[in-house]
Amino acid sequence: MGDVLNDIADCVPALRRYARALTHDPDGADDLVQDCLERAIAKRSLWRPIGPIRPWLFRILLNLHRNALRDRRRRPATTPVDELADILPAPGSAFERAALAETARAMERLPGEQREALLLVAVEGLGYAEAAAILDIPLGTLMSRLGRARATLRQMTSENGRPILKAIK
């Protein structure tokens, strides 16, 4: 049982990053992670150690986030633009910082399903199969969402048809 709790604790930084990127609110992200950890610890007997615990935790966090979104549909959402740039590595030049801020704003405007997929793969560095399992979608669906997200980001962050930020592949 102690190993499971240690494995859960090891995942907290990644859960915090993902929650901050999903919610765009540091306090809301902390609450989301806390809710995720409470649920994971309370339900740890349901986890079957046939693989890493990280995807299970990400799925809990994502389900909690989606439930909260459904509960808040009637209220307008507020999204601070600067939050995503705070959790990514800081680029060197002023041009790179401006391009990163523009990319963060563009990511906020992506449809939720595309943003969730892109954050898991691009920010958290998860493999396609692991991200698809977390999102509970087929691998082909994940690939489609990533392709649409990347294409939309390229379009939103280009100037006269030329990409401003070349890091988006």
From TrEMBL:
Keyword Transcription regulation on entry: yes
Organism: Aureimonas ureilytica
Entry's Gene Ontology BP terms: DNA-templated transcription initiation
Name listed for the protein in its UniProt record: RNA polymerase sigma factor
A Pfam family: Sigma70_r4_2
Keywords: Sigma factor, Transcription, Transcription regulation
Family stated for the protein in its record: Belongs to the sigma-70 factor family. ECF subfamily.
UniProt cross-references to CDD domains, sorted A to Z: Sigma70_r4 (cd06171)
